[in-house]
Amino acid sequence: MTEQSVTVAGSPVGGEIVTAAAPQDGTPDTRVSVKPKNNRAWFLVLPVVISVAFTAVIPLMTVVNFSVQDIFSPDDRIFVGLEWFRSVSRDPEIRAAFVRTLLFSAQVLLLEIPLGVALAVAMPRRGVWVSAALVIVALPLLIPWNVVGTIWQIFARADIGLGGWTINNVLGVDFNYTLDSTDAWITVLIMDVWHWTPLVALLAYAGLRSIPDPYFQAAQIDGASAWATFRHIQLPRLRGVLTIAILLRFMDSFMIYTEPFVVTGGGPGNATSFLSILLSKIAVGQFDLGPAGAFSLLYFLVVQIVSYVFFTVLTRAGR
């Protein structure tokens, strides 16, 4: 009796290649040869695992430890369970900061996504001006966050800033972001739009450049208008890119800290006191590590949940 080797299901089973010897006369045979696995490849990802452990997992576990204790000193602490979580979730100041942060993120998305797409559509696709346009659009992204805050802190000043002086003396509008809560909110919002709309524009521009030219040639032959071309060719092809842009901009705007802290410090009053600024005051200013730990974990959980909802809705809409 002669035998031939066949592969079971044609794929590895449990990381191992399994083969069976099947006789030609149809008689079943249960003999199996197993190829040993080689686990040495896992050592290549070991540095990444160690880095993530030290930069994410261990700090997160430390925060979890703080969130269930009332800490009086390094050697004096008591276990309080979920008390800080209940206290933080019922705090009216934190609830108000949550509403402000959510409103700010919604306004950022409503402004930056359309502006970024419009800017990407207007940018040249060929010629010597492509490189110049990309560099000019990307300039705000190259500026550090604290420098952006300092720039707008001076620029929007009514007494010495060019922007504030122009609004007050040329446009005749009484503008002072240090005293008026609405002016402070508008200043922070415009600053974020100026800083991060280029990111949306660059992502959308990359998506537009990936569209093959025959699509545009066919639209031109059919006599499609610019709006029809955008609506039926460009926008559908940007759906994946815009999903990434929306997720990135939501997470960044919901966790914004440096720019509004430098410009307004969360004021006037609590007008621009977002969740991140309030968390910093509790953790650093008041040194309440227990409430700050619970606050940061709830903050992290909200960002993850909302981002997941955004991703699920946008992905299903793309189908």
From TrEMBL:
CDD domains, sorted: TM_PBP2
Pfam families, per database record: BPD_transp_1
Segments forming domain ABC transmembrane type-1: 98-310
Membrane-spanning residues: 41-64, 97-121, 128-155, 184-208, 240-258, 294-314
Swiss-Prot/TrEMBL keywords: Membrane, Transmembrane, Transmembrane helix, Transport
Disulfide bond as UniProt keyword: no
Protein name: Carbohydrate ABC transporter permease
